[in-house]
Amino acid sequence: MSFSDGFFNRVEAKTNVNKKTILKLAEKLQQNDLKNEKTLREIINELSTLTGKPVSKEKEDKIINAIKEDKIPKNLDKMI
Q1: Most CB atoms within 10 A, among 58, 76, 78, 80?
Q2: What is the value of pTM for the model shown?
């Protein structure tokens, strides 16, 4: 999947996380098992810290369940 600079600009505008950091996180995601709950919690925590937006335990659990059950939208560009 290839993303345009426009995509990264929209993400950065909403989250204050720059392209380099996003790509570094994407690389980390590719190197880990996204069905592993511990890995998912670490990534959610890292994203929460990067964006300065806290994630409740309840919301974290919902995110993890959605990922494990493949209920994540395939077209991320339309989400931003």
Answers
A1: 80
A2: 0.68
Ramachandran angles phi, psi of 63, nearest 5°: -60, -45
Nearest C-alpha neighbor of 41 from the set 55, 59, 60: 60
Sign of CA dihedral 15, 48, 32, 78: negative
Eight-state DSSP code of residue 34: T
Q: Give the chain's largest Cα–Cα span.
A: 33
DSSP assignment, residue 4? -
- Amino acid identity at 71: K
Question: Structural domain of residue 11, as residue ranges?
Answer: 5-79
User: What is the total count of domains within the chain?
Assistant: 1
Q: How many residues does the chain have?
A: 80
